[in-house]
């Protein structure tokens, strides 16, 4: 494993995982895991910024870990673990808090969006500090590559800034990580509102396809997905709905949008949606079946996470200690 580039990424166990996080993140993690040294993390501490129900959080953590395995992450090839099992994450977060600036955190669009909902004054300090913990996640492993969806670009830029600032102030310590954002699938839009991102916080479940949705629910959601005016199945900026559906189709089948446009020339939305629904069902059904199977056997799941945490700590501990020493601790 010595000469392979390191990869780190994480997903929050809050709400159901959906087709957006699959295409923007999970699918690429599976594709990358062969040639890299990988750390994939259920970032449960990040989920605390929004969670108030311990029982729900506990379930979400297990469900997300099951999904990690069900999509094809392999504990032999990747270290799969929970953030809260590796206390070095919060320790490094504190060190980075002392070089991060209030101004730069105030500019994070995710914070601004989320804080806006309840008023910035009432937003938790955890929500404000969220991107620093994320930087700690990544820098703690000296990860080179961070495969994420487009919405994480700004957070990744902050991680790079903090790595550079630390190195500049205290001496070379951290690798400056690169985001890995693929073109197709990096920004899947909501089915009921193609100008908004597909997200688990959407008020209407018709907007997203959950990875654990039943086949008939998937078919129904795609049938009801909004479409644009006109009849042509072509991608263009004035056709956000069909562009999104073509993007999903392309990402799931590893084909290009122009190939699909060619195939569906002269055909109607009805036929296109029917085929797309079957493509989605075919991809997600095995994932759903495997995840449900794993959830039936939580002991196996917990053992994998425990083992992952042990392996993660072996790498994280010396890197944290080197940062502490550089700062004078
Ligand atoms: P989330 O599901 O919001 O916790 O995000 C988990 C991962 O999926 C991150 O890497 C996100 O960038 C990515 N992601 C989330 N929503 C989408 C989306 N609608 N399209 C593409 N990627 C997404
Ligand atoms: N903020 C990321 C998201 O919302 C989750 C995350 C936390 C993450 N720590 C990370 C992603 C480290 C990549 C690397 O999706």
Features:
329 residues; mainly alpha; Rossmann fold; Tyrosyl-Transfer RNA Synthetase; 2 domains; three-stranded parallel beta sheet; two-stranded parallel ribbon; binds adenosine monophosphate
Describe this protein's structure.
With 329 residues, the chain is mainly alpha-helical. The protein folds into 2 domains: 6-186 and 297-326, 3-Layer(aba) Sandwich (Rossmann fold), CATH 3.40.50; 205-292, Tyrosyl-Transfer RNA Synthetase (Orthogonal Bundle), CATH 1.10.240. The protein is built from 13 helices and 5 strands. The chain has helices at residues 19-32, 44-47, 54-70, 88-97, 102-106, 109-118, 125-139, 153-170, 215-224, 240-253, 257-263, 269-295, 298-327, and strands at 6-11, 37-42, 78-82, 145-147, 178-180. The strands form 2 sheets. A 3-stranded parallel beta sheet has the order 1-2-3. Strands 4-5 form a two-stranded parallel sheet. Strand 4, helix 8 (153-170) and strand 5 form a beta-alpha-beta unit. Helix 4 crosses helix 7 (125-139) and helix 9 packs antiparallel against helix 12. The longest helix is centred in the last third of the chain and has 30 residues, at 298-327. The protein is globular, with a radius of gyration of 20 Å. Adenosine monophosphate binds next to helix 1.
Ligands present: adenosine monophosphate, tryptophan
Estimated share of beta-strand residues:
5-15%
Whole-number mean pLDDT = 95
**What gyration radius follows from the Cα positions, in whole Å?**
20 Å
Give the CATH architecture of the largest domain: 3-Layer(aba) Sandwich
How many helical elements?
13
**The top level CATH class name of the largest domain:** Alpha Beta
Q: Remind me, CATH topology of the largest domain?
A: Rossmann fold
């Amino acid at each position: 494993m010595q000469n392979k580039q390191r990869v780190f990424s994480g997903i929050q166990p809050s709400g159901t995982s959906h087709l957006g996080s699959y295409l923007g993140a999970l699918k690429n993690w599976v594709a990358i895991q062969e040639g890299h040294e990988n750390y994939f993390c259920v970032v449960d501490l990040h989920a605390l910024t929004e969670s108030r129900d311990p029982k729900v959080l506990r379930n979400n953590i297990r469900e997300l870990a099951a999904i990690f395995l069900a999509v094809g992450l392999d504990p032999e090839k990747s270290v799969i673990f929970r953030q809260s099992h590796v206390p070095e994450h919060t320790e490094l977060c504190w060190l980075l808090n002392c070089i991060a600036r209030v101004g730069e955190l105030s500019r994070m669009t995710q914070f601004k969006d989320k804080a806006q909902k309840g008023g910035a004054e009432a937003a938790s300090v955890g929500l404000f500090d969220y991107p620093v913990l994320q930087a700690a996640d990544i820098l703690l492993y000296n990860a080179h590559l961070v495969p994420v969806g487009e919405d994480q670009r700004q957070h990744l830029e902050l991680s790079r800034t903090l790595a550079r600032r630390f190195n500049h102030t205290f001496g070379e310590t951290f690798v400056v990580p690169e985001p890995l954002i693929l073109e197709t699938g990096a920004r899947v839009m909501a089915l009921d509102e193609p100008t908004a991102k597909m997200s688990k916080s959407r008020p209407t479940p018709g907007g997203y396809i959950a990875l654990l949705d039943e086949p008939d629910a998937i078919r129904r959601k795609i049938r009801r997905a909004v479409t644009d005016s006109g009849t042509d199945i072509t991608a263009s900026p004035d056709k956000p709905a069909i562009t999104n559906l073509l993007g999903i189709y392309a990402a799931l089948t590893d084909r290009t949008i122009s190939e699909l446009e060619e195939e569906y020339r002269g055909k109607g939305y009805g036929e296109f949606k029917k085929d797309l629904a079957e493509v989605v069902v075919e991809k997600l059904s095995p994932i759903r079946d495997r995840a449900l199977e794993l959830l039936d056997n939580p002991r196996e799941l917990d053992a994998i996470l425990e083992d992952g945490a042990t392996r993660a700590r072996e790498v994280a501990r010396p890197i944290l200690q080197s940062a502490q020493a550089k700062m004078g601790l």
